[in-house]
Amino acid sequence: MAWSWSHTQEAYRDAEINASELSDADAAMIFAEWKAKDSREDYAGGFNSVKYVRGMMEAVNMIRNGFREGIDRYIWENASEFATCDNGGFNAWLCPYGCGPHCVPFDRKNRLG
Fold first, then answer.
1. Where are the beta strands (DSSP E) in 1-113?
2. Which distant-in-sequence residues (6+ apart) come within 8 Å of 29 by Cβ?
3. Which of 15, 58, 67, 102 is surrounded by the fewest CB atoms within 10 Å?
4. How far apart are CA 31 and CA 58, in angstroms?
């Protein structure tokens, strides 16, 4: 079950910082998952594998060229719009599918991993 975000501005800031500290590999994967999400589906929609591969290639090129901040911004904008978290509201979903490795806590003290 997923919940909608309902946190303080400090919690959103902490989650955004936690998101920016993910590995390049995780950030690229999350970026590609947003690119692959079928926009016609409202909730954790379909997955377009061709768009995923293109998204991964785009993310890798951005990282290689020093544009990791652009990836982080894209991820946070999409995650914020989707505004979904785990049951209990402890971890923000960064990807459209809510998979565990792609979630970050709303608290800097309780960072995952």
1. 2-4, 84-86, 91-93, 103-105
2. 56, 59, 95, 102
3. 67
4. 9
